[in-house]
Design a protein that fits this description.
Four copies of one chain form a homotetramer. Chain A contains four helices and eight strands, in the order ααββββααββββ. By secondary structure, the first copy, chain A, is of the alpha+beta class. Chain A has a single domain, classed as Thiol Ester Dehydrase, Chain A, CATH 3.10.129. In chain A, strands 1-2-6-7-8-5 form a six-stranded antiparallel sheet. In chain A, strands 3-4 form a two-stranded antiparallel ribbon. The longest helix of chain A is centred in the middle third of the chain and has 23 residues, at about 55-80. Chain A starts with a helix and ends with a strand. The interface of C and D includes residues 17 and 51 of C. Chains A, B, C, D: InterPro entries: HotDog_dom_sf, PAAI_dom, Thioestr_dom. Chains A, B, C, D: Belongs to the YigI thioesterase family. Chains A, B, C, D: GO terms for molecular function: fatty acyl-CoA hydrolase activity.
C-alpha cells in the first residue's frame, strides 16, 4: 500500500465521516506528502458577528486544529519505510491534539477559507506543526501552532 | 442601566443571535459579575471521532474562546463607574480575540460540557483570561488561555 | 531508594550543577511529591528595565520553564511503583520542554520571586504543567503553561 | 530625527544598558526597518545540561522575547509619519510582553545563536510577532510567538 492511498483514506474519513466536519462543511481538498489543504466555504451558519458577517473564531480554530492533525499524521506516514493499512487502525486513533495556539490576525472576511500546515518538529511520540488560514484572495486571517501526540 | 442588564443583553445576543452558536447549540447559561458559564449538550453533530463518540476539539476551542471573550467583556463592564447601553454599541463590537491557547487534558466524553472563565490580567486595552471546560460529572476536559482586545 | 531521595538528587543537580542556574542564582527550595518551589532573589544582574528596576521577562520565563520541568519529572517518579536511581540516568536526560507559554500579568517587582507548578495532564510520553510566579508579598507576576517530553 | 537613529538608540540601550542582557552577553547585532537580529555567543554560563553542553531553554526564551519586543517596537516607529525622540521616552517604556509561546525544535547546540523576528499583526495597542532562533550553521533551534503591548 502506498503512502498516498493511506492519506486518501484519511482524507475521505475527515471530509465525509466525521460528523462535526460535515456539520460545518469542512473539506480536505488536498492531502499528499507535499502538503495539506483544508477548506470551508463561507455560509450563514459559520458567522460569529452579525453586523460584520465574519467567520466565527471557533471555525478558525477548528480549521487550524484539523489541518495540524493531518499534517502531523502525514509525518507519521512519511516516517514508515513500508506504510500499511494498519497505520489507519493503530496510529490514526492515537492521534490527538495536546495543545493549540491560535493567533487571530484580521477579521475572517471572504467567500472561502483555506488552511495549510507544515511540520516544525517531528518525532515518534510528538509532532509540532504550524498552520495558516487565508481567504480566497490570499488575505492572511490567522496563524496556528499545535502540538500533537502521534504514537 | 445596571451592569447586570448589560450582561443579560450580551448573553441573549450570544445565545440567540449568533449564527454559529445556534448552529452548534451553544448557550450562555450564566453571566453576571461573579462568573460566566457557557454550555453545550452533547449531540451527534459535535462528534469528532466516530469510534469513540467524543467531542471535536474545535468545539472545545469554540467554547473556551467564547467564554474568554465574555469574561473579558464582563471585566470591561465592571471597570465602568456608570455603565450604559453605549457599551453594547461601542465596546462589544471592538471585543476580539488576539490569541488563544487550548490545552486538551482528556477526551471530551460526556452528556453536557460547561466552560467557565476568570480574568487574570485586566487593562483598558487588553485582558487575559483563563478558561476551563468540564463535563457534567466534573471531569476536567480542557484548559484555555486567551488574550482579548477590549478597547 | 525512595522517591524523595531521587527528588533530592535532582534538586541538588538543578541548584548546584547547572551552569545557567548558578549564573542567575536560581535555587530549588522545595521538591517533594506534594510540590515544587523554585526561587530567585532579586539582584542587579536580573533587571530588564533600568528605570523601573523590574525583573527581566527572560528570568520569569526561565523560572517557569524550570519549575514546569521539575513538576513533570516529579510526575514521572510518582508513576513508578518502585523508583530507582536509574530514573536519574535514563529518564532525567530525556526530559525536555516541547513548548512553553508565559502570560505576563504585572511588572516583576519584589525582593524574591517564587515559582510553583502543578501537573494538569500526565502520561508516559508527555506531561502538561501549569506554573505561577509570585513575589515575596504574594503578588502574582506571571502564569506559565508548559508541555514536556517525559519518556 | 530619522527612524534609524531611534532604532540605533534602542539597540544601544538593549545591548549596553540592560543589566540582564549584559549578564548573559546578549547583543542586538542588527536593527533597522527591514529586520532585527539578536545574538549570543555560546558560553559556559549559558549551559542548561552539563552532559550535553546545550543552551538552557531560558536563554532561548529570553532571546526570542527580546527579539519580539524589538520587532514590535520597530513596528511602532514605522507607523509614525514623523518619528521623534519622544518615542523613546513615551512609547519604549510602555512596551511590554503580554504573552509568549516558545516551541523548542531541537537541542541548542552551537557556537553562536541568532534570533530574528517578523510582525504578523500590528495595531496601535497590540502587536503580535513571530520569532526564530538558529545557530551559526543555520540549524533551526526554536520558534517563538509573542503578543506585545505597544501603546
Amino acid at each position: 500500500m502506498t503512502s498516498q492511498l493511506i492519506l486518501d483514506k484519511v482524507s475521505a474519513i475527515f471530509s465525509e465521516q466525521l460528523p462535526f466536519h460535515r456539520h460545518l462543511g469542512l473539506k480536505v481538498v488536498r492531502y499528499d506528502t507535499e502538503g495539506v489543504e483544508v477548506a470551508i466555504d463561507m455560509a450563514d451558519h459559520l458567522i460569529g458577528n452579525v453586523h460584520q458577517q465574519i467567520l466565527h473564531g471557533g471555525v478558525t480554530a477548528t480549521l487550524l486544529d484539523v489541518t495540524g492533525g493531518l499534517t502531523a499524521f502525514a509525518g507519521v506516514v512519511a516516517r514508515e519505510v513500508d506504510p500499511g493499512i494498519e497505520l489507519l487502525q493503530q496510529k490514526l486513533p492515537k492521534l490527538g491534539t495536546i495543545d493549540l495556539r491560535v493567533d487571530y490576525l484580521r477579521p475572517g472576511r471572504g467567500q472561502r477559507f483555506i488552511a495549510t500546515g507544515t511540520i516544525i518538529r517531528t518525532g515518534n511520540k510528538v509532532a509540532v506543526c504550524r498552520m495558516e488560514l487565508h481567504n480566497e484572495e490570499g488575505s492572511h486571517i490567522a496563524f496556528g501552532t499545535g502540538t500533537y501526540l502521534v504514537g
